[in-house]
Every structure is written in structure tokens, then in C-alpha cells.
Amino acid sequence: MKLSIVIPVYNVEKYVSECLDSCLEQNIDITDYEIIIVNDGSTDNSANLINLYAKQSNIIIINQENLGLSAARNAGMKIAKGEYIWFVDSDDWIEPGILKRILLAISLCAKDCFRLNYRTVTEAGKILKDYTPLKKGDESCQTGMEFLSKDFSFSFYAWSFVFNRYFLLKNNFFFTEGLIFEDLQLIPRVLRKAKCVKELPFIAYNYRQRKDSLVNSCHVFITIEQPKLIRNIRV
After folding, report:
1. Cα(88)–Cα(68) distance, integer angstroms
2. Does 42 or 147 have the greater pLDDT score?
3. How far apart are CA 29 and CA 153, in angstroms?
4. CA-CA distance, 83 to 106, in Å (whole number)?
5. Residue 179: which residues within 8 A CB-CB, separation 6 or more?
6. Is the per-residue pLDDT at 32 higher than 50?
7. Fewer CB within a 10 Å sphere, N or C end of the chain?
8. Is 44 within 8 Å of 13 (Cβ atoms)?
């Protein structure tokens, strides 16, 4: 198994089918990757929609009480079998054919993590902006600290990295449960430990801007606290 995609789900009945379809409609063999869906105690129709995918041979569904995003991601990580792991949010979607490009990059050079370009889209799916700090031809490996020193502005989304699963487990890099916007706590710690981060120059992910999303409700905290946070990281 080359890749595990972990998708936490909580009350996203409007979006979850688009997310899952994007992960399934890829041009690689289904034996190369698994999709782990963690239903975190959804109270809307999300669970019923997820169950429609249960017959897919590379899909695993976990149902748990509502414990939060961190706990859902951790539950998926603990049973994942892929050499690499990608955390995808259930209200977003991935690009067509992107798994083939990611797996090709992995086959050419095994690294601690790969950084992905992405775009933001409206709630209805209209493209807002492409985030492509890396241009083709500038894809050399760098340490995590080198990466942090030059690209601090929007580096803390878990879905913008594909991680070596053994690297995460070896260093006990799990998401801290009970935190709001837990990516801010984990990703800098991971990067400080990473010996090699490789950036990939193509758009891989579509990040939906929802007015009621957790990230938007925490925007002020993120903006104010990021510089302080990086100074106080402990590995």
C-alpha cells in the first residue's frame, strides 16, 4: 500500500460526496491506495452518504462518537497501512489525476514529507486564488527548518502535506486532541524534525472557503498567534 488518505467527516452532507468521488476517480490502481473515512459522530445525513461507498474495496469506514477533528485524524492514522499518508478534509476535494503525480514523485525520491500547491474556492466551488509558491524547476530537497524560514505564511494546513507515515509514528506526531485548529500545533513540530521536505509544483488540492468553517471563525487567533507559536515550539 503506497498511500493512505484519511478523511474525517462531521456534518458535511452538502460536500462529502464530492470529496469522496474526487478521491476515487483517479487514474491509479485501487490497490495502490486506501481511503479511510472517519465519521466523527455526524448528526446530519453524512453517515448515510458515506455508507453508499462502503462496497468500494479500498474504502474503510470508522464510526466513532463526536471527539473532534484531531481524534478523527488520529483514529485514521492508527489503522493506516500506506507508506505515506494524506489528510484530506471532507468539505474539500482533490484534483483529477493527482494521485498518479504524487505517487510518481514518491517513487522517485522518498522524503519525510511533500508540500503541495493548492487553490482556494468559494463555497459553490468557484476558483478564488491559486497558491503556487513553488514553480517548476525549483524542486530541490530542503530541511524542514529551511522550509519554515522561507515559507511561513500559509504552511500549516495538514492537507497541504503528504507525510511519510513511519516518520510520523516514529516521532509520535499525532494531533493534540481538544485543540482548535490543531494543525498550528503539529505542523511546525513535524517540520522542525524533518530532514527533507520536497515541494511539488502542481495544484493538488481545492480548499473550500465556508463562512461557517472552523478556520474562518479562528482567523483572528491564527493571524495574531502564529509568530508567537513558532518561537515556542518544542520538539
Report:
1. 15
2. 42
3. 36
4. 10
5. 70, 185
6. yes
7. C
8. yes
DSSP letter (8 states) at residue 11: S
DSSP string, 109-141: ---SEEEEEEEEE-TT--EEEEE--S-TT----
* pLDDT (tens digit per residue) in 47-56: 999 999 999 9
Cβ atoms 105, 200 nearer than 8 A: yes
CA-CA distance, 2 to 108, in Å (whole number)? Answer: 13
CA distances from 7 to 1, 23, 88, 196 (A): 17, 10, 5, 25
- Taking the C-alpha atoms of residue 60 and residue 53, their distance in angstroms, rounded to an integer, is 9
Nearest-angstrom CA–CA distance, 88 and 19: 8
The helix (run of H) or strand (run of E) holding residue 208 is strand 197-208
Q: Are strands 197-208 and 113-121 parallel, antiparallel or unpaired?
A: parallel
- Asked if the model's pLDDT at residue 61 lies above 80, the reply is yes
* 122 φ/ψ sector (left φ>0, alpha ψ -120 to 50, else beta): beta
User: For the whole model, what pTM was predicted?
Assistant: 0.88
**Is the CB of residue 59 less than 8 Å from the CB of residue 35?**
yes
Helices (H), the chain: 16-24, 46-51, 69-79, 98-108, 144-150, 165-170, 183-193, 214-217, 219-231
Whether the Cβ atoms of residue 98 and residue 104 lie closer than 8 Å to each other: no
Integer-rounded Cα radius of gyration of the chain: 17
